[in-house]
Write a structure and sequence with these properties.
Blueprint lengths: L17 H6 L5 H15 L4 E6 L3 H12 L5 E6 L5 H11 L9 H17 L3 E6 L7 H17 L3 E7 L2 H5 L5 H5 L6 E3 L4 H14 L11 H11 L3 H17 L7 H10 L11 H4 L9 H6 L1 E8 L2 E7 L4 E5 L6 E2 L10 E5 L4 E5 L6 E3 L2 E3 L1 E3 L5 E4 L2 E9 L18 H4 L31
Parallel strand pairs: 1-4, 1-5, 2-3, 3-4, 8-9
Antiparallel strand pairs: 6-7, 6-16, 8-10, 10-11, 11-14, 12-13, 12-15, 15-16
Length: 447
């Protein structure tokens, strides 16, 4: 990190690594409120605190700050990687100093009970932190429920901090995990940044790389676009800022513009909610009727099914059809098995290509996992527990099934309003298999 507070004209801005950006202590009022509630819950002896927010870095930062303020009479166990019940319990037992490789689940639970008894006798307290809770096997969460209930009966002084994305709320509504959620009196919600906080965040990132004035590195409007593309989620904004500055450096530019942010967003496959931005920015420009390319682009549709029931029909009416859990996706699958931006279907006049966006649980075509591939008539895309069939017919009548009974999908206003008669040259998206496609929300699953 440089010590200089200014740049020479024409100098390339320093780059802060993604790893450092995720771990450095940027604090907002929302952070301070969450940290205060963690401290109060612990002081009051509450057995469970649930913390919900998009992205991992902020929750991890708060937990780290909370732990740093504890005394030596507290034993802390942190589970930061997805796990199942027995692997998670083995990590806990290993963290408190026991060899656990050959133990079954009952033996692990007995060892931990003995440890808690010893903690009680010595007037010590124990904290278990489970981060990215939505990625863990539900059996691990159920095991934590059992441990909390056991601790309450014997007043062991155990505290569990469970953090994760908003989908964790849905997971905790299912029995018997609803009993776990009921133990948390009040939840900590880490809201996305408002635009003022985003500007502070960008200023902090800029200063962390040795530049005192963010205006030397980012155009004012570029920061606004960063906020919109990332929907105020700091993990994603950090990644986008870094990628945009890398592009500026490679292109010999001293300042990040909206064009560079958009280019970086395309590389990361960040799509804003199309209802919040100008259509010309997000949707392709469709030439007037009579073009062969228009006919090709409007030829075909996707039929989405859950357990054999049709829940959505999406015409192929734009260059990119985004599939994922995010509300801005064309095909939205609201399931914890699906990443926010899970896969993308790229359409041009000659072919359709499907690409997985580094999703947690993978994308499948006719049962075979793919990274990217061409798509033929009647092939079925598997995303989470949904099946998405490609039908290569003429879908220009814009007919929709209108079936949203399962609640797993939401209607896409941009898709259902039909074709707009835009003018201008058609910009066909180039699909480059050599380019890396990144989903910032990805969390690896431990096999």
């Amino acid at each position: 990190m440089t010590d200089t507070g200014h740049q020479q004209p024409g100098a390339t801005p320093a780059i802060l690594s993604a790893e450092n950006a995720a771990s450095l202590p940027f604090i907002t009022d929302s952070h301070r409120t969450g940290l205060g509630q963690l401290e109060r819950n612990f002081a009051e002896g509450r057995p469970l605190t649930i913390m919900i927010g998009e992205g991992k870095a902020r929750a991890s930062l708060l937990i780290g700050r909370f732990i740093a303020g504890l005394g030596d009479d507290v034993t802390v166990v942190r589970l930061t990687e997805p796990s199942n019940a027995i692997a998670g319990m083995r990590q806990i037992i290993h963290s408190i100093g026991f060899e656990s490789k050959e133990m079954n689940l009952t033996e692990l639970e007995n060892i931990f009970t003995m440890f808690l008894t010893s903690q009680k006798i010595n007037r010590r307290r124990t904290i278990i932190c489970i981060e990215e809770g939505q990625d863990n096997d539900p059996w691990l969460l159920d095991q934590i429920r059992r441990i909390i209930e056991l601790s309450d009966k014997e007043t062991y002084g155990l505290t569990v901090i469970l953090s994760g994305r908003p989908i964790l709320n849905e997971i905790l509504k299912k029995q018997p995990l609803d009993a776990l959620a009921a133990r948390a009196k009040g939840r900590i919600t880490l809201a996305p940044f408002v635009i003022a906080e985003t500007r502070e965040f960008v200023r902090w990132m800029t200063e962390s790389s040795g530049v005192t004035d963010e205006g030397q590195v980012f155009d004012f409007d570029a920061v606004t676009l960063i906020h919109e593309l990332c929907e105020g989620i700091p993990d994603t904004m950090g990644t986008l800022c870094i990628r945009a500055r890398e592009l500026a450096r490679k292109q010999g530019k001293t300042k990040v513009t909206t064009e560079l942010v958009q280019e970086a967003g395309d590389l990361l496959h960040l799509l804003p909610n199309v209802r919040q931005l100008d259509e010309d920015t997000v949707m392709m420009k469709i030439p007037t009727a009579g073009s062969n390319k228009v006919a090709a682009l409007y030829k075909g549709r996707l039929i989405v099914r859950i357990d054999g029931t049709v829940v959505q029909e999406q015409p192929l009416n734009r260059e990119r059809i985004m599939i994922g859990r995010d509300q801005g996706c064309d095909v939205r699958v609201n399931s914890h098995l699906v990443s926010r931006h899970h896969a993308v279907l790229v359409i041009d006049s000659d072919s359709l290509r499907l690409a997985d966006l580094g999703s947690t649980n993978g994308t499948f075509v006719d049962g075979r996992e793919i990274k990217q591939c061409g798509l033929d008539d009647r092939q079925v895309i598997g995303v989470g527990d949904s099946q998405i069939e490609y039908i290569a017919d003429d879908g220009r009548n814009d007919s929709f099934s209108g079936l949203y009974a399962t609640g797993l999908f939401g209607p896409d206003e941009a898709g259902t309003r039909g074709a707009r008669d835009f003018t201008g040259e058609l910009q066909i998206l180039e699909f480059d298999p050599e380019k890396t496609i990144v989903d910032p929300t990805r969390r690896p699953v431990r096999k």
